[in-house]
Amino acid sequence: MRIGLIGAGAVAPFHVRAAAELAGAELTAVCDIDEASARRAADLAPGARVFTDHRRMIDAHAVDAVIVNTPHALHPPMAVDAAQAGLHVLVEKPMATSVEDCDRIAAACAAAGVALAVGHIQHHLPDKVAAHELIASGELGAVRLIRDNRSTDYRPGTRSPWFFSREVAGGGALFNIGAHCLDRSLWFGGARALEVSASVANRFGSPVETDGIVRLRLENGVGVAIAIVSDPPTRADTLAVVCERGTVEADPRAGTLVRIDGATRMVREPSPDDIQIGFTAQLADFLDVVHGGTPAVPLEHARHVVELILASYRSAQAGAATAVSPIPAATR
């Protein structure tokens, strides 16, 4: 399968190397409005063509599928253009900046008969996979509570300017980093959210939120607490899942650990290759979806993540909890 990468930002090398590692996949084109960035990514895939307009890449018939790795608000038009040209689509998280645009992407791919997957990388990172498999084994019993503690840096100047545009990014730290936290918390919690309560802070003169706290009540009674803090004294990326008979923690730097009745054991040691392992697994999943397989991340799950981010903003503005709509009958 000939793959075109649209967007040559920070994670582009992981996408390129994933294609190089998988049989049956070849990255044949890279597109970015910054030609120098596109060329740097293309240099990692000898022979890949370089474009500065995704429509020209599509019209060149150089690819069979695309990875949409662009600013959030650009996901829908680019994914729809690709689908209408008969190309399979892997779109990075968040799927879009509105629920309506999530539905627009899904409808376009369905109408064109092409595969669609959403790149929620947390489902493929080895530390999270090991934790999820441990819980699925039944050793710890049912999940009761989830605590997700994540640091970031949303000081203006620390990242590309588009991250600070509500129109382009959809929001700030909650839309970018919070999408990861909501994704993995829902995945481990095993149910949709019924209610959201959130608070946000805009610091450093940022036009978008830099910090946020989100609490969820899931349909199955699991409680979730998510904290995203910008520029703290210490870095954090720890998902703690409290179960009936023990607690498991997944952290890309510390690995996956479980504690049962006063005793701790290592489930999986961290590895310097873990991020690449995750991106390669994500692309392998996409190839499987193209060939008729079931995606690791259901489209309704990706849509629900966007729904919850938007509900978090409403809750923070109102200063009260916000109910979440039931799943639409059309997407059941």
UniProtKB/TrEMBL annotation:
<feature type="domain" description="Gfo/Idh/MocA-like oxidoreductase N-terminal">
    <location>
        <begin position="1"/>
        <end position="120"/>
    </location>
</feature>
<keyword id="KW-0520">NAD</keyword>
<dbReference type="InterPro" id="IPR050463">
    <property type="entry name" value="Gfo/Idh/MocA_oxidrdct_glycsds"/>
</dbReference>
<dbReference type="Pfam" id="PF01408">
    <property type="entry name" value="GFO_IDH_MocA"/>
</dbReference>
<dbReference type="InterPro" id="IPR055170">
    <property type="entry name" value="GFO_IDH_MocA-like_dom"/>
</dbReference>
<keyword id="KW-0560">Oxidoreductase</keyword>
<dbReference type="Pfam" id="PF22725">
    <property type="entry name" value="GFO_IDH_MocA_C3"/>
</dbReference>
<dbReference type="InterPro" id="IPR000683">
    <property type="entry name" value="Gfo/Idh/MocA-like_OxRdtase_N"/>
</dbReference>
<dbReference type="InterPro" id="IPR036291">
    <property type="entry name" value="NAD(P)-bd_dom_sf"/>
</dbReference>
<protein>
    <submittedName>
        <fullName>Gfo/Idh/MocA family oxidoreductase</fullName>
    </submittedName>
</protein>
<feature type="domain" description="GFO/IDH/MocA-like oxidoreductase">
    <location>
        <begin position="130"/>
        <end position="249"/>
    </location>
</feature>
